[in-house]
């Protein structure tokens, strides 16, 4: 999905509501079909090089009490979103959950935020729009950018231009909820480096890695928010910059890489909009644990189960990942990014990253 072909969210939401009324008028039981959001319904799109939902669908139907309540909640939510868009206002996903408590029918109110979040995702899928188009936002993720990039952003006080090294403090430029409001003006970057942890991000900035290697450092802040993945994709696609993802060496961090490169199960309907399939993994490999004799922790039972699950995950069914995961299961160890400090605080910026980037042809 690109900003050019995104449908008008008001028209799409209205069309969905009208569909329910038409079903009533025709004597049909109201229903809404959405893709089944499970790993078994994920497939690789050879043309777009991302993971998307397959053909399996789930039907929300008023034939059952629970199904009728889901459609009722959808109708109330559509009405709220249309009003919000019309008034040019926005709200958070958390606020939507609490807001439903003011709706006049108890059956329309959400029982948990997971329920309201899931409904927003359903509406994205069936409308072809995004929650950002609905003026819905998550709580601030706090993810940032530091690097040789000048951009223009829209603020409540008008436009402003920012250089993501010269005009920001050590914390960097905070990524807005909707990165499509940003215009990239110019840059002197050679590549994008996405970093999982705040500690490693701070080490790179303190050591001047972004300046010495002309890198745009994107702090993922753990599992990256949609805004972080979107701006990463834009940096790669629009500025034609190689993109690498630097994480810890454990199964949960591999999934962080997977969400950046291939998309996540929750947002597979937006993979083309959010995922950067050309992104390469430069994180701590089991191979590094062995070669550098890094400090480690033993794998927990949940780690082992996650690794075995990843062997069955289509996003990780490559020779590289199968080799690394099998090695990790064999050595039964995991390691963090900051374990590289066992070789000195400058090792990561002077040796590890330059050598890996050189091997990958980025430097």
Short description:
This protein has 363 residues and is of the alpha/beta class.
Spans of 5+ residues with little confidence (pLDDT < 50)? none
Shape verdict: globular
Strand-pairing-aware structural class: alpha/beta
Radius of gyration: 22 Å
**Sequence of secondary-structure elements:** HEEEEHEHHEEEEEEEHHEHEHHEHEHHEH
| Percent helix | 40-55%
What is the second-level CATH architecture of the largest domain? Answer: 3-Layer(aba) Sandwich
CATH fold descriptor of the largest domain: Dna Topoisomerase Vi A Subunit, Chain: A, domain 2
Question: For the report, how would you describe the main beta sheet?
Answer: 6 strands, mixed
Strand content range: 15-25%
Oligomer: single chain
Number of domains: 2
Mean pLDDT across the residues is 89
Count of helix runs: 13
How many strand elements?
Answer: 17
In the sheet with the most strands, the strands line up as 10-7-13-12-14-15
Distance between the termini: 31 Å
CATH class identity of the largest domain = Alpha Beta
């Amino acid at each position: 999905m690109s900003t050019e072909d995104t449908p008008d969210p008001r028209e799409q939401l209205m069309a969905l509501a009208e569909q329910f009324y038409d079903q009533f008028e025709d004597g049909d039981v109201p229903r809404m079909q959405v893709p089944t959001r499970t790993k078994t319904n994920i497939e690789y799109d050879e043309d777009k090089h991302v993971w998307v939902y397959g053909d399996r669908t789930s039907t929300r139907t008023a034939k059952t009490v629970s199904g009728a309540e889901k459609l009722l909640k959808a109708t109330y939510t559509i009405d709220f979103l249309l009003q919000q868009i019309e008034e040019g206002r926005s709200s958070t996903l958390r606020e939507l959950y609490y807001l439903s408590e003011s709706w006049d029918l108890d059956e329309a109110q959400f029982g948990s935020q997971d329920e309201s979040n899931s409904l927003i995702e359903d509406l994205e899928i069936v409308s072809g729009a995004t929650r950002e188009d609905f003026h819905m936002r998550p709580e601030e993720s706090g993810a940032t950018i530091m690097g040789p990039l000048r951009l223009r952003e829209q603020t409540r006080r008008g436009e402003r231009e920012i250089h993501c090294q010269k005009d920001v403090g050590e914390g960097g430029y905070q990524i807005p909820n909707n990165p499509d409001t940003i215009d990239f003006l110019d840059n002197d970057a050679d590549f994008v480096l996405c970093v999982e942890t705040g500690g490693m991000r701070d080490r790179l900035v303190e050591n001047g890695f972004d300046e010495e290697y002309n890198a745009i450092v994107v702090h993922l802040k753990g599992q990256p928010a949609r805004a972080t993945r979107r701006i990463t994709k834009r940096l790669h696609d629009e500025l034609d910059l190689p993109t690498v993802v630097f994480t810890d060496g454990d199964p949960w961090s591999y999934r962080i890489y997977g969400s950046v490169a291939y998309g996540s199960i929750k947002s597979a309907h937006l993979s083309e909009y959010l995922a950067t399939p050309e992104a390469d993994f430069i994180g701590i490999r089991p191979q590094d644990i062995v070669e550098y004799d890094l400090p480690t922790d033993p794998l927990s039972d949940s780690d082992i189960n996650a690794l075995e699950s990843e062997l069955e995950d289509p996003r990780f069914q490559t020779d590289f990942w199968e080799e690394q995961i099998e090695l990790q299961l064999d050595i039964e160890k995991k390691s963090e990014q900051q374990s590289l400090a066992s070789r000195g605080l400058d090792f990561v910026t002077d040796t590890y990253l330059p050598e890996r980037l050189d091997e990958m042809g980025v430097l």
